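seq/struct pair 1
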Amino acid sequence: MGVGDTRRLEILFGKLEIDIMIVIASHDRLDFLEKSLDKLHSIDRKNHDILVVDTNSSDETYLNGIQQLKSKYPNVIFDRKEYTCWDSGAYLHAHLKYTSENYIFLQDSMEIIDDNLIDHIDKMLTGFEVVAIANFPFFYDNREQKEYAEAGIEGILKDYPLFGIFGPIFAVRKSTLNKIPN
């Protein structure tokens, strides 16, 4: 029985924890990834499932170092996409392959400076479908770009948002991801 299986059994038997998987998109930067994993293990009081998705790294030092990280962090799930899919591809892969009620999507190069970040997100996901960890005001280079973006959300949202999610670094419910068209 894996870490994820144990967490799902805990939820079935009445623990009040939210089922969250922390997904880290990683590409060729072992130093960043190890720093992120060290920080997460020092601050994640609920021991959420952690998935690292390598987005087709090519650096030999990184690829060899992943084996060492697997030994250092036996409870972390390491997966790899055999094509360059960047962060959004890693997140889509996690959503389609790994069962979780909620996801926190991070980049390996992101530095967590608030030791309560995971706890804050945990609480916010009880009241919101999407939690932006960082955001930016929407702006467009031209009218065609704006029309394309608006057409992509037509029928999904009632109001056009004023802000976007930066990164992509955010948390989201699986049920919300399931609403996005193919």
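seq/struct pair 2
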Amino acid sequence: MKNIQLYFIVGLATVLFFSSFEVQAQKKCKFDFEETDPFSGKTKKSNTSTLVAGLGYETWLVGWNREGDTFYMGMLATLQGEFNTTINQGDSIMFKLADGNMVVIHAKESSTPITNVSTASTKPVILSTYRCNYTITKEELEMLSNSVITHVRMNIADKVLQKELKEKKALKVQNDIKCILK
């Protein structure tokens, strides 16, 4: 009888312990922007996730955006080199998930890169930056929130760019998506 009581107490303690982590994770939702429209009553909020950063001056940032029950994703991608191709309306971004599923979203509009020259030490570096919005549904966001993203593939006209996400970054992105769904 004492063994059963001991197992019960240990089991209960384990459940309470992990429940506290879930509550703590839910408290970590910080938004870049959050306000309620005084006329419509709709809440607008946004947060930013870094998909790629670092070596080679390449960065891929995504903004998860919500206005009421409407969602969209903004992408800001800076690529090293001169890119003269346009992201066409309908071009896709694919997210490969750890559970084997894939989420494919499409550009809402066309985007032409802005190219500039930056300096790294004494060497000039050419950078091309794309800024584009993509349609995304609540169901697609829920899929992304249920499994971490392992790979991202971006189609820019006839070019295909693909990156692998490290686990730590993928978990941060997953948390950002969970937050935007709340």
